[in-house]
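Dear colleague,

Thank you for sharing your sequence with our group. We've completed the structure prediction you requested, and as agreed, I am returning the results in plain text so they can be pasted directly into your records. Please verify that the sequence below matches your submission; if there's any discrepancy, let me know and we will rerun it promptly.
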Amino acid sequence: MGNGFSESQLGTTGSQIGSSPIRHRVIDGAIELPISEIAGDISPRVSGEDVSHTRLLAESCSDLPPILVHRPSNLVIDGMHRLKAALLRGRRTILVQYYEGSAEEAFLLSVELNIAHGLPLSLADRRTAAQRILSTHPEWSDRRIGQVVGLDHKTIGVIRGKSTGEIPQLDTRRGRDGRRRQVKKHDGDARKSASKGGNDENLSAHEPAPATKSDATSRRGVEGIAEPHRDSILTNLRNDPSVRFSESGRILIRWLEASPRTAEDFTKIAVQTPEHCIDSILSIANYNAEKWAILAAQLNRRKR
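Please find the predicted C-alpha cells below.
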C-alpha cells in the first residue's frame, strides 16, 4: 500500500545505510501493523528507552517515519522510540517496513542505523555491540567492526584481546573490502597481552597499566567475582527477556555495565582523577557504594 513517505524520510533506506551489503534485504514499501504484534526489539541500546526522547517524538506535530521490523521475529530493528511515541499518542497501529535477513544481520543493521541517525548510541552501547559482533563475526577485521559500531580499530582490538575465551582467535581476518588477510604476529601478541592485563605497545595508550602484586589482594575485594564469570552473568542478563523487555531490567543492566570491570580500571581512575575533583568524586563513590550495599542486602533477604 502507499505510505506517503519518500525514501529519504523512511530512516531505513537511502543514504543513511549507504552501500551496506545488508541493505538489499529491506523490503520496499510500508504497511500498517497492529502494535500488539510487535514482539520487542533488537536494539544495541544497553540502557533501553530514553523517556525524554520518546516524549519529544510524541509531542511533535509531524508524522513519524515507519519503523523497521525483522519480519521472521517481529522484533524492531530501528524505531523503538517511535513505537513508544505512537503508544503515547494513543495509536493502536504503526507504519512498518520489513527486513528479511537473519537475526545476526538484523542486529548489524540496527547498529548501523542507530549510529547513522536518531538518538546517538552511548560508548557503552557501542562497546557492547562490538563484543556481540566479534562473537558472531570473529573473522571480521578490527577496522571493519570499528566502522560499523563507530569505535577506533585499536579499541576493537583491545575488546577482542580481552575476550579470548569467548571469541575464536583466527589467523586471518576479512576486511571492509571483503578480502581475507593474514593477522600480523604483533597483533596476536597484543591480544595475549591484553587478555593477561599487560601493557603492550600495540594496545591503546588509554588502557590501564599491568596490575602490581599488591593489587592482587585488592582485586577480590573490589570485584567480588572473577571477570570471566562477571561477563557471563551480564551476557545472560542481557539475553533474558524478563530483564531485557522491562524498564527496570534495562536500567539495572545500564548500572551494571557502567561499573569498572577490573581492579586496574579502578586504579587508573584513582590515579588520573584531578586533585581538585577528588572530594566530589569520593562523596559520590561513597554514596553509590552505600546504595549498592542496600540493594545487595535486599536481594539477599529475598534469597532466604
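Summary note from our side: The beta strands are 31-34, 40-41, 67-70, 75-78, 93-99, 172-174, 180-182.

Kind regards,
the structure core
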